[in-house]
């Protein structure tokens, strides 16, 4: 049985250490975090450039819990434009919304992100 291809991801998170932990949990399951934007604020153009310069091209955008709904919506719009422009038909945005941490706890976030990605890419 052939293994599934590795799915490249870009992460936006205020805490680089949390993003690194997520990356370490994802790696054995065929997901690679190719970049981490660990800025408190970012612009649409910065995100657009980051998505386009990474190789392999990110197929998933992971957004940490430290961002507002408005910021997450902006990221979704940039990611949607990127997937259309690059022809990525199966892209996925995973956002750790405020209720997720309360539900799974800080240590459960990486596993929750993995579940979201597997549900989208591995079914």
Summarize the structure.
The chain is 48% helix and 17% strand. With 123 residues, the protein is α/β, with parallel strands linked by helices. It has a single domain (7-121), classed as Rossmann fold.
**Numbering strands along the chain, what is their spatial order in the largest sheet?**
2-1-3-4
Strand content: 15-25%
* Low-pLDDT stretches: none
Q: Span between N and C termini?
A: 16 Å
H/E order of the elements? EHEHEHEHH
Overall 3D form: globular
Superfamily (CATH H level) name: Response regulator
CATH architecture: 3-Layer(aba) Sandwich
The helix count comes to 5
Structural class: alpha/beta
Write structural notes for this entry.
The protein is 48% helix and 17% strand. With 123 residues, the chain is α/β, with parallel strands linked by helices. The protein has one domain (7-121): Response regulator (Rossmann fold, 3-Layer(aba) Sandwich), CATH 3.40.50.2300. Strands 2-1-3-4 form a 4-stranded parallel beta sheet, sandwiched between helices.
């Amino acid at each position: 049985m052939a293994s599934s291809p590795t799915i490249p991801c870009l992460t936006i998170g205020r805490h680089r250490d949390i993003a690194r932990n997520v990356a370490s949990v994802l790696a054995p399951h065929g997901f690679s975090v190719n970049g981490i934007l660990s800025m408190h604020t970012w612009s649409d153009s910065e995100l657009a450039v980051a998505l386009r310069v990474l190789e392999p091209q990110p197929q998933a955008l992971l957004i940490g819990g430290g961002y507002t709904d408005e910021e997450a919506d902006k990221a979704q719009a940039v990611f949607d434009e990127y997937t259309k422009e690059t022809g990525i038909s199966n892209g996925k945005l995973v956002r750790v919304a405020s209720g997720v941490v309360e539900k799974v706890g800080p240590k459960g976030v990486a596993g929750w992100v993995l579940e979201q990605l597997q549900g989208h890419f591995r079914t």
